[in-house]
Amino acid sequence: MTTVEAPPKARSRPRTNPFAGIWRRPVPAAAFVVVVGISVAVILAPLLAPHPPLAQDLLHTLSGPSANHPLGTDVLGRDVLSRLLYGGRPTLIGVGLAVLVYAFFGMSLGILAGYLRGWTDRVIVAVLDVMLSVPAVIITLAVLAIFHQSNAAAMLTIGFFASAGLARIIRSSCIALREELFVDAARVSGLGPARIMARHILPRLTGQLLVPVFLFSGNALAIQTGLGFLGLATPAPAPSWGGMVGEAAQIMQQDPYLLFVSGGVIGLMSLSFGLVGDGLRDLEQDRRQATGGRLRRPVPATAPQDANKPSDAPPDGAVLAVRDYSIAFATAQGPRTVVDSISFSVRSGEIFGLVGESGSGKTVTGLSLLGLLPPNGAVTSGSAWLAGTRISGLPERELQGIRGSEIALVSQEPMVALDPYFTIGSQLSEVVRRTGAVPGGKEAVRQRVRDLLTSVHLRDPDGVARRHPHELSGGMLQRVVIAMALAGSPKVLIADEPTTALDVTVQAGILDLLRSLRDEHGMAIILITHDLGVVADSCDRALVMEQGRIVEEGPVEDIFYRPRHPYTRQLIASTPSIAPTEGRIA
User: Fold this and answer.
1) Is there a contact between 225 and 245 (Cβ–Cβ < 8 Å)?
2) Residues 481, 487, 492, 494: what is their CA dihedral angle, to the nearest 10 degrees?
3) DSSP 345-373
């Protein structure tokens, strides 16, 4: 009898805690503690209240704080602390009901409209427009009259009409998520719309939901206490925070103390709701910037080292030197090293190739030299030197002075580097003024822009400067980006896959341009590419990377004609333009 081994249990996807990281922000953390603390105290009112909320002591009216009455008594001798604790119950219950309805209808309508689109979207949007145009306060007063001053009915009404604003926000986010590749993959797998919305769309909107929920909680608290102040929703003598403010207002001239106590609790809770919402919004922004959409524990950066150590000094004659350089990214499973102890140097007037397949760490290495790693990435060891100055571990303010003027970047996709709302000339002028390369007025800046566009072999530089990015071809855009990188006359130019998205003839023109710029300005160029044909055509020396490590380095002739590492030989064999046509290509 053959025993069939059970398949391994699928590993569940780690869930993101929306409050993760809030403790590193003192103000939102303190506000969150206030909200939770007051809410717990209200829930435990029967245990914490020193007296019944309606018990009167007419011999001690309007008395100050004492051992028997920690916050004093009101005009009828009732204990203020007990009434605050019991009065918070209908207030916070009303806020909770409004928030639940607000979140339920806002999420449901927003996801349905954003994902299903078509007539469903049109109908829901029309309903939302009606909800936003209806005077919710008047309808709430009518509901109170119909349902005999029902606190629950009033707050449910408030939450329902306010959910229209949340539904619009969720709809916009859902429309963007609907076009993501993981949603297309779910459709191809045969999942239905309900399954996709519940399993793939909703979890990614939960963190975004908490921000408006906390902000709305403050508004709902203000509305609830306002109704209590008017004697609605929670009629006297039952305690409520709004009712206590109304009672204190009647004797404000006689004793203003009660107004400060009751109003202070309301103000503190409203402010805390808003501060927690702001803190969650900042955390959500951090999560979007981090890879994978999750807030990662930051990787410890390399500790500052003494630049005078002989072992840490840059080699002579190198404009850029990297020594024992490692980069790691924080993940849910812990730090992951993507570049492991690499070392290389680049001389002035040299085109240095950084070669490897996708994921080998070459682009991350180039971005780290400019201090452009994502928030969850860091240089964990080693050092980098630019023209004799250590640039690894520099603060952001000092890196801003180096970018563009000492070391510049040509990105792989030119549209990423250009703002579609501004003309080419205005963007180049901004870079010229920022780098301080041209002292003088507008005419000097305009002439510098013209010279830069001419230097990258663009015909009619004045016409190009007047155009927007979408009016230029891909090759022209790449030349504009190169001109922008040259604005500060950098010593090192990092070109990240500058020819990937271009056709063959345009690629040749861009490579010729890089060579001519090297010859004219004497700058060092780091050419990041996976195309060995580009390396053979343009580079003087090259470095081959595999999985974050250097496997081979040397002159281009040696790498192509005398490769030492098996990985280098496999790269050459898998390049159709280089590999022999006879036989099977690896």
Assistant:
1) yes
2) -10
3) EEETT-EEEEE--TTSSHHHHHHHHTT--
Total Cβ atoms within 10 A of residue 380: 20
Contacts 24+ apart (CB under 8 A), 410-414: 410/478, 410/481, 410/482, 410/485, 410/493, 410/494, 410/495, 410/496, 410/498, 411/481, 411/496, 412/363, 412/496, 412/497, 412/498, 412/500, 412/501, 413/501, 414/469, 414/474, 414/477, 414/478, 414/480, 414/481
| All domains of the chain in start order, with CATH | 22-289 (1.10.3720.10), 310-406+490-573 (3.40.50.300), 420-478 (no CATH)
553, 568 in Cβ contact below 8 A? no
Residue in the block written with tokens 């980098």: 384
Mean pLDDT over 405-430 rounds to 81
What string of H, E and C letters represents the secondary structure of 9-49? CCCCCCCCCCCCCHHHCHHHHHHHHHHHHHHHHHHCHHHHC
Q: Which of 476, 487, 478 is nearest to 451 (CA)?
A: 487
Rounded-to-integer distance, Cα 269 and Cα 277, Å: 12
Q: 473: closest CA among 424, 518, 528, 437?
A: 424
Q: How far apart are CA 545 and CA 555, in angstroms?
A: 15
Return the pLDDT at 61.
84
Mean pLDDT along residues 352-371: 86
Q: Which residues of 537-553 are buried (b: 16+ CB within 10 A; e: fewer)?
A: ebbbbbbbbbebbbbbb
Q: What pLDDT shows up at residue 159?
A: 92
Distances (CA, A) of 445 to 159, 365, 401, 429: 56, 33, 19, 6
Cα Rg, the chain, nearest whole Å: 33
340 touches 329 (CB < 8 A): no
pLDDT digits (tens, 9 = 90+) for 9-36: 434 344 456 666 777 788 888 999 999 9
Give the three-class secondary structure for 465.
helix
CB-CB neighbours of 491 under 10 Å: 20
* Whole-angstrom distance, CA of residue 217 vs CA of residue 483: 51
pLDDT for residue 6 is more than 50: no
- Give the model confidence (pLDDT) of 272-325 as tens digits: 998 888 888 777 766 655 544 333 444 555 544 444 444 455 556 688 889 999
Residue count (the chain): 586
Here the tokens at position 526 are 């780091």
pLDDT, greater one: 310 or 523: 523
The token pair at 167 is 């539904």
Sheet holding 492-496, edge to edge: 407-410, 492-496, 524-529, 351-355, 541-546, 549-555
Mean pLDDT, the chain, rounded, equals 81
pLDDT tens readout for residues 107-143? 999 999 998 888 999 999 999 999 989 888 888 888 8
pLDDT for res 536 = 84
Task: Report d(CA 179, CA 586) in Å as an integer.
Answer: 36
Residue 23 CA, distance from chain mean position: 18
